[in-house]
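User: Okay, second chain of the day. Same drill as before: sequence in, structure tokens out.
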Amino acid sequence: MPCNEDITRLRHMLESALDAVSFVQNRNRSSLDTNKMLQLAIVRCIEIIGEAASKISKECCDAHPQIPWKNIVNMRNRLIHAYFDINLDTVWSAATKDLPPLISELQKILGPDGRE
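Assistant: Same drill. Structure tokens below.
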């Protein structure tokens, strides 16, 4: 069972992942090119997920190796530090392909309502 600080961060990850997935519903990849607000919202959600993941304890990460912690943090770092050179194809792929399985894994840890 994760510690209280980990639970809070896992909840932040889950909430931001759910937000990002909801933002892309009924949209297509070209939406990121034409809708700056959508682009910024999804990028921000992914940044939050990565920031929270970077603060998860080693024990919690080790207990849940099915979550690609390093990749999540690396994506956050790329978005934060290369903010004017963001690959929107990668952002779209993360939101549409990577986040749904992450949501499932986080819900397994926290429970479907995010409360563990």
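The CA atoms of residues 11 and 114 lie 6 Å apart.

User: Thanks, on to the next one.
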